[in-house]
């Protein structure tokens, strides 16, 4: 398992709570930010880090990118 800092862990848990566990159920950064109740920049930084660690997958779309948990 990859080591996650507290904010990353919170983001992953929020994504699981929202059901963002597959490509069909991906959520936007705004959805995740609302669930975490933390500043958007903090959540976005955590999402970038989680994508780099391979815990979260980012899917580019026309408007907002979607994210889902892979691990």
Number of contiguous helices: 3
Label the structural class. Answer: alpha+beta
Low-confidence sequence ranges: none
Share of residues in strands: 5-15%
Specify the overall morphology: globular
What's the β-strand tally?
Answer: 3
Q: What order do the strands of the largest sheet run in, or round the barrel if closed? A: 1-3-2
Number of discrete domains: 1
Sheet with the most strands, sense and barrel status: 3 strands, antiparallel
Q: CATH class, anyone?
A: Mainly Alpha
The CATH topology assignment is Arc Repressor Mutant, subunit A
Radius of gyration, Cα only, in angstroms? 11 Å
CATH architecture: Orthogonal Bundle
Q: How would you state the average pLDDT, rounded?
A: 95
CATH superfamily (homologous) name: Winged helix-like DNA-binding domain superfamily/Winged helix DNA-binding domain
- End-to-end C-alpha gap: 9 Å
The helicity comes to 40-55%
Query: What string, H for helix and E for strand, traces the elements in order?
Result: HEHHEE
Structure description:
The chain starts with 5 loop residues before the first helix and ends with a strand. It is globular. With 71 residues, it is an alpha+beta fold. The mean pLDDT is 95. It has helices spanning 6-18, 29-36, 40-53, and strands at 27-28, 56-59, 66-69. A hairpin with a 6-residue loop joins strand 2 and strand 3 (66-69).
Write the layout of secondary structure elements.
Elements: H1 6-18, E1 27-28, H2 29-36, H3 40-53, E2 56-59, E3 66-69
Antiparallel strand pairs: 1-3, 2-3
Helix pairs in contact: 1-2, 1-3, 2-3
